[in-house]
Amino acid sequence: MADLRRVLACLTVLTMMSAAPLCLAGSNEITLQRFGDCIQGTTPDPDTGEVSPCIATRTRDEAFRSFANELGLAVSPLGLQPAETLGIAGFSVQFDHSVASINSDADYWSLAMVDGDAPSSLSVSTVHLRKGLPFSSELGLQVGYLWGSELATVGGELKIALLEDVFWPAPDIAIRGFGNALIGHRQLNLFTAGADVIASVPFGVAGVVQLTPFIGYNLTVVYSGSRLIDASPGDLLPPIENAENPARSNRPEYVFATESDIFHRIFAGLRVQVAAVDLTLQGTFLGEVTTVSLGVGLNF
């Protein structure tokens, strides 16, 4: 038992050490400034002879939407758990780390990054708390951080086991609903919500280790929009709306309306549990973003 615990601890430390360079590399600071451009006026003001620096804005709506969808999928909360629940007295504390691939060659990522240098992937670390409830259900809370940025995530979940502890090897089956908000950006509004269907079968090994492979289907809805954005923040002229004389108008401000997009994904993983310690690996595929995740937890 002691040897197995030491092996599990070593694997955990090594995995975290290998993930650290991915977390700390580069900057993931985000701006929405480049998703809109000012259209300069061409007609001089009849009184002053000046041309308006920004009579209107031209926005890149599809580019913003593609960027927001990929970011939303990258930070959306993953279950990293099989179908079985904790039990009415159970409690779990888990540290999750995910690395999500993105379409870094797409122009919208260069537009979105403050330094103009798109990363090849995004790394998110999350503290995941779960509490068992009656009727084979549990409530969860997740607080995460997008490495290289000032952005954080806050989310909640509810999981209900539809089949649990039936005749082995009949799988446990559960559904999980979740919601998650990205916070820390003064312009971006980003929220994800969705549901999982999970199936898993536990296997005992030598009476001390439990292996639980699991598979599932994930539906994620990404809601994206923005607050007020100024296309020319360096221009000291305040916004002016002059319907009678457009040459005197200055309209650098714009907003991306809230839109929603639905994504269908699949995931598969394995949980290795020794006593109260578990190590969970999960891959999440399709939906524009592929994510590889590791979770290390304690169950009480």
Report what the structure shows.
The protein has three helices and 15 strands. The protein has a single domain (2-26, 60-299), classed as Lipocalin (Beta Barrel), CATH 2.40.128. By secondary structure, the protein is mainly beta. The longest helix is centred in the first third of the chain and has 23 residues, at 2-24. Helices cover 15% and strands 46% of the residues.
Mean pLDDT: 86
The N- to C-terminal Cα distance equals 18 Å
Q: Give the overall shape, derived from the CA principal axes.
A: elongated
Largest sheet properties: 10 strands, antiparallel, barrel
Order of strands across the main sheet: 3-4-5-6-7-8-10-13-14-15
Q: Report the sheet-strand fraction.
A: over 45%
Tell me the CATH topology.
Lipocalin
CATH class: Mainly Beta
The domain tally reads 1
Number of helices: 3
**Architecture, according to CATH?**
Beta Barrel
Query: Could you list the spans in which at least 5 consecutive residues all have pLDDT below 50?
Result: 1-26
Total beta-strand segments: 15
Helix content: 10-25%
Instruction: Give me the Rg, rounded.
Output: 24 Å
Give helix and strand order, one letter per element, not per position.
HEEHEHEEEEEEEEEEEE
